[in-house]
Amino acid sequence: YLSARRPHGLPPIYDPERVGRDALLRAENELRFLYQTGRAGADSARVRLYLAEAARLRADAADSASVERVIHHYRRAIRLAGDDTALAGLARRRLAEFQRELGREP
Description:
Blueprint: H1 2-5, H2 21-36, H3 44-58, H4 64-81, H5 85-101
């Protein structure tokens, strides 16, 4: 996980104040590969939150499939967070913000 995020200057947990759009999109493929190969391990929820944020950047509100992809990533991050209440809470807040942006009730 560290080797996928460090070159892009990403913090251990997604922070909307510290993570730039370009850095996130550059890191997306490495993070996706890490997750898909099962190498994210205990950091799977963190990786999934980053993937949610990357998908959110590209989401088109008129494209229900892209919107559902973002929502799925957030929900998966929440489930994977388990006992990490801070991470789960962050993912819940980001999901609710996204849904409000779309005019959906969280």
